[in-house]
Design brief:
alpha+beta; Jelly Rolls; 2 domains; 6-stranded antiparallel beta sheet; 17% helix; binds 2,5-dihydroxybenzoic acid; binds fe (ii) ion
């Protein structure tokens, strides 16, 4: 595509504009929309209904073999504001993957990192560099950048789950690499406990004194089990006395985010309670795990049910209003913004209410500050 040619009534200036365009140059003074007062966000608040994702996933299971296109039977959530790009928000891929009974999605690896979150069903094993990780109901399973992964469904029942990848970020950096790999032997794919959990999933605050070398850029623990998450949420709510609480999934040894590009959190909101309305820079994808209620994103209000996937674009306020107790899994690109000093957060509820006037029963859960948060950033 040729460089845009600007026009001017002054013939000398017009000639300059022609010369600039001929040399692939543009005058900044004619350009607009670059340094905007606030982020100009193209992605829109959106919800993909869990019921439809299940139906369409199953339909794809009937019609499409697993090997067509990227070795995976995946339906990508495409934000309608993103000009057809297959991304849920500008920085995150979100999708559902459907694997029929006795199917195998073959081994491959790529520089974009992935995570799997299981809303319902169980029985698939994901092998990550050969380590078999069971995908149980409500579990979080990681496949970090450049790790080989393959999905095996040895049982008769189909299974569907959500994938989130940092693909848009890696693609924007022109750093996408992909290669196929050999699939593992059948007898190594269904062990009860992965090596990753054997080493690093021993228990709260317990890590091996002489364990294997830590991978430099991500958590050595690759599966986060629902029994632990559920118990931790109850304990946190009980301790804080709040009506909602958020847990962050972390590297059990170093305490940071599970992967360098994606932050995983889960928010439990008690029946009848509402979370604060907050916004932050960077995109977020939500997945409803349990319960019903309303998720508000910008000016949109979505009545949600388990399996729903929602897009929260950058700098867009969002909040949860639980009818039944509501568990909401969340992935954001916050580690990227933190690392680059670009994270800004704003709590619109406490700003409206003024400091100290918030009702006691609406007090938020404890805030987890990351060490890289700039001290001066609004929160
Ligand atoms: O399961 O390996 O949703 O490679 C997109 C790309 C899932 C996967 C996706 C992938 C995978
Ligand atoms: Fe993959």
């Amino acid at each position: 595509m040729a460089t845009q040619r600007f026009g001017a009534t002054d013939p000398d200036l017009d000639r300059l504009y022609q010369q600039l365009a001929d040399r692939s140059l543009q005058p900044l003074w004619e350009l607009s929309g670059l340094l905007t007062p606030e982020p100009r966000v193209k992605g829109v608040p959106f919800r993909w209904a869990g019921r439809e994702l299940r139906e369409l996933g199953a339909r794809a299971g009937d019609l499409v073999p697993v090997d067509r296109g990227g070795d995976r039977r995946v339906l990508a959530c495409c934000n309608p504001g993103l000009d057809g790009a297959p991304y849920a928000v500008s920085t995150l891929w979100a999708a559902v993957q459907y694997l029929r009974g006795h199917e195998v999605a073959p081994a491959h690896r790529h520089t974009p990192a992935a995570l799997r979150f299981v809303v319902e069903g169980k029985g698939v094993w994901t092998l990550v560099d050969g380590d078999p990780l069971h995908m149980g109901t409500s579990d979080l399973v990681l496949t970090p950048s450049w790790t080989f992964h393959e999905h095996h469904n040895p049982g008769p029942e189909p299974m569907i789950w959500m994938d989130v990848l940092d693909l848009p970020v890696v693609a924007a950096l022109d750093a996408v690499f992909f290669e196929g790999g050999p699939s593992a032997d059948a007898d190594t794919r269904t062990t009860a406990r992965s090596a990753s959990e054997g080493w690093f999933g021993g228990g709260p605050g317990l890590v091996p004194a002489d364990g294997p070398a830590l991978p430099p850029h991500r958590s050595p623990l690759l599966a986060y089990r629902w029994a632990d998450t559920d118990r931790a949420l109850d304990t946190l709510l009980d301790t804080s006395g709040g009506r909602w609480a958020t847990l962050r999934y972390t590297d059990p040894v170093r305490g940071g985010d599970v992967m360098p590009t994606m932050r995983c959190e889960i928010t439990r909101t008690l029946a009848g309670a509402s979370t604060d309305s907050v916004r932050q820079t960077g995109g977020r994808v939500l997945c409803v795990l349990h319960g019903t209620g309303e998720v508000r994103i910008g000016t949109e209000h979505f009545d949600v049910a388990p399996g729903d996937i929602l897009a929260v674009p950058s700098w867009t306020p969002w909040s949860v209003h639980a009818v039944e107790q509501l568990d909401l899994f969340s992935t954001s690109d916050a580690p990227v913004l933190d690392a680059l000093g670009l994270m800004r957060t704003e709590n619109l509820t406490s700003r409206e209410a003024g400091a100290g006037t918030r009702a006691a029963d609406e007090s938020p859960g404890p805030h987890l500050h990351t060490p890289t948060d700039p001290a001066g950033a609004p929160r």
